[in-house]
Amino acid sequence: MNDPTAAGSARDTDWEGVRLHVITGKGGTGKTTVAAAFALALAAGGRKVLLVEVEGRQGIAQVFDLPQLPYAERKIAVAPGGGEVYALAIDPEEALLEYLEMFYGLKRMGKALDRIGMIDFATTIAPGLRDVLVTGKTSEAVRRRDRSGKRAYDAVVMDAPPTGRIVRFLNVTHEVAGLARVGPIKNHAEMVRGVIASPETAVHFVALLEEMPVQETLDGIAELRAAGLPVGGIVINMVRPVFLSEPVLAAARENRFDSGELALGLKAAGIVDESGDASLIAEALTQEVIEHAKRVELERREREMLASAGVPCYELPLLADGVDRAGLYELAEALRAQGAA
């Protein structure tokens, strides 16, 4: 592969031409962590990337160990090769004020409405409006150019809602466009839909090698395809290492693992209990081996299920010390090495 730190170098990536990477996944799969790693991976080599949060959880601030992020695009990290990652925590109320000013010139009125709580009331009783605002703000960042005509960001990564809500979230502008026949709302919705449904967008799923996250991922991919939305890849997160060879795993799965032989080996190595016997230790270790073999087999089946979706799959390791800034860079490099970014 090309040197990932070489600014301007060609990249081996499965997503050439994609500028909006939407990251979704079942709760607990590490969706925000993967989104952050994706942003760092895309920024490597001197690129400028915007990482967007849409759920108001301040998850980006937590994974980067930063204070609460404001509703403003702010640089939060430097990637290998001098790239930059900016972050934006979208606030629907602030986005609505921007929308009123942009399309209707109602900045003062919008602030007056905000003071009496009308904006919060409107976005609360119409949750679809919140989705339109945050997808609209993200799409604007994808399309934005500076005065010289250069794109403001080389790529945008969205830490999106969970898998169970992703299709409705991304498709809400289509529904709004159907309700509003003419005018700025109609035009705005069509612009957003034009970005989200285009080849410039890919929706990536984060999964664990467990039954429920895998099934939800497969269901989500099927729903995206049915809605005509662009499916990206699958990031298998928190993959645990396999410690034993295949013959040993097979023996454990088939109840052929010899704990007596293990006891002899332990005793020869001087690993015994207070009575000088190694049998009890061997029995406990045998159970551990059997459980490990069962887990490996289960994960193998779940991995095959994910592969049946027919999209690229990437694997990120379970970090023993948890995910800190150094861990994010490690995950980002793993994504680049596999061609995800």
Verbal overview:
It is a single chain. This protein has 341 residues and is an alpha/beta fold. The chain folds into 2 domains: 20-240 and 318-337, 3-Layer(aba) Sandwich (Rossmann fold), CATH 3.40.50; 246-292, no CATH class. The chain has 13 helices and 8 strands. It has helices spanning 31-43, 59-63, 92-104, 107-115, 118-125, 127-143, 163-179, 183-196, 211-226, 246-253, 259-268, 279-307, 325-337; strands spanning 20-25, 48-53, 74-78, 84-89, 155-159, 201-207, 231-239, 313-317. An 8-stranded mixed beta sheet has the order 3-4-2-5-1-6-7-8, with helices on both faces. The two termini are 12 Å apart. The model is unreliable at 1-10 (pLDDT under 50).
How many helices does DSSP assign? 13
CATH class group of the largest domain: Alpha Beta
CATH fold title of the largest domain: Rossmann fold
Structural class: alpha/beta
SSE ordering = EHEHEEHHHHEHHEHEHHHEH
Major sheet, described briefly? 8 strands, mixed
Rg value: 24 Å
How much β-strand is present in the residues?
A: 5-15%
Global mean pLDDT: 86
* Proper CATH architecture of the largest domain: 3-Layer(aba) Sandwich
